[in-house]
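User: Fold this; tokens only.

Assistant: Input:
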Amino acid sequence: MLEYYCYVYYDKDWVAYYVGKGNGRRYFRLHTVPRPSKEYIQIFRFEKEWQSYECEVQLISLWKRK
């Protein structure tokens, strides 16, 4: 079962502005950053928690911190 995930929030121009990881419905809860509508959230699902962590690290490394 793909219990863990990494998620990305995009703005209306499809520019990523937040990357996170979690399980359950964390990606849809309130954050310190504005949450976009569901069509602007991308989710990558994984079996193991460490896989979601690695995905988060790689995506942040790719886009850098703004």
